[in-house]
Amino acid sequence: MKKLTLLAIPAALALAFTTSAFAADGKAVYSDNCAKCHGDDGKGATKMGTKLGARDYTDATVQAAFTDAEAFKSIKEGMKKDDKTLMKPSELSDDDISASVTYLRTFKK
């Protein structure tokens, strides 16, 4: 039983560090690629965000209006309204997109 416990502790620590690293990566990806329009705080109140109508991701109602898969698709494929490009398709890796969506969810209040 002691051997099992001794093995479980490092495994749990590794998982915790991996999860923290993933969340930290999401913040870095968001900061580098999304904050210009969506703001560091996710409110979309930047000059570009206001111009393009970026949503306020601190609003629980706004966040409830889309799934992670929909957010992923919007980042991956971009967004258009009529003939106007609201967001260009991303060149980020799928892992980086997933990390940024996970980080985006932390803005909800």
- Oligomeric state of shown chains: single chain
CATH 2nd-level architecture: Orthogonal Bundle
Per CATH, the superfamily is Cytochrome c-like domain
* Structure summary, number of beta strands: 2
> Could you give the order of strands across the largest sheet?
1-2
Report the total helices: 6
What fraction of the residues are assigned to beta strands by DSSP? 5-15%
Poorly predicted runs of 5 or more residues: none
Helix percentage:
55-70%
* Count of structural domains: 1
Mean pLDDT: 86
CATH topology, what is it called? Cytochrome Bc1 Complex, Chain D, domain 2
Note the gap between the termini. 43 Å
What's the alpha carbon Rg, rounded to whole Å? 17 Å
Order of helices and strands: HHHHHEEH
Notes on the structure:
- With 109 residues, the chain is mostly helical.
- It has a single domain (2-107), classed as Cytochrome c-like domain (Cytochrome Bc1 Complex, Chain D, domain 2, Orthogonal Bundle), CATH 1.10.760.
- The chain is 62% helix and 6% strand.
- The protein contains six helices and two strands.
- A two-stranded antiparallel ribbon has the order 1-2.
- Strand 1 (79-81) and strand 2 (84-87) form a beta hairpin.
- Helix 1 packs across helix 6.
- The longest helix is centred in the first third of the chain and has 32 residues, at 2-33.
- The chain is globular.
- The N and C termini lie far apart (43 Å).
- The mean pLDDT is 86.
Summary keywords:
single chain; 109 residues; mainly alpha; 62% helix; two-stranded antiparallel ribbon; 6 helices; Cytochrome Bc1 Complex, Chain D, domain 2
